[in-house]
Amino acid sequence: MFFFAAAGDAVGHRRLTVAPQPLGTLLDALRGEYGPALGAVLDAARVWVNGEDPLDGDATVLQAGDEVAVVPPVSGGALP
Fold first, then answer.
1. How far apart are CA 36 and CA 53, in angstroms?
2. Among 70, 69, 52, 66, which Cα is nearest to 19's?
3. How far apart are CA 66 and CA 17, in angstroms?
4. How many angstroms separate the CA atoms of 36 and 11, rounded?
């Protein structure tokens, strides 16, 4: 599992190994373990499984070897 930008800041590291489980179960456990800072990030972040939106959303069952990425929205500079 990979945490980018504010997600990594909220968790305190950028990578975590997790057991196969439903995605929603994993996200709920992370909210409980890392508290409201990560919860706020997850509320606005995209969560990808193997580089794509999970087809079954939170019901997607993760398999060994799947890569889960938490990618918060990023802001850029002003356009000309």
1. 24
2. 66
3. 10
4. 11
Q: Is the pTM of this model over 0.70?
A: yes
Q: Is 7 within 8 Å of 30 (Cβ atoms)? A: no
Question: Taking a C-beta distance cutoff of 8 angstroms, is the pair 42, 4 a contact?
Answer: no
pLDDT tens across 56-78, in order?
A: 999 999 999 999 999 988 744 45
In angstroms and rounded to an integer, the radius of gyration of the C-alpha atoms of the chain is 13
Domain boundaries, the chain: 2-71
Specify the CATH superfamily of domain 2-71. Answer: Beta-grasp domain (3.10.20.30)
Q: What is the DSSP letter of 71?
A: E
Amino acid at 6: A
**What local confidence, expressed as pLDDT, does residue 77 receive?**
47
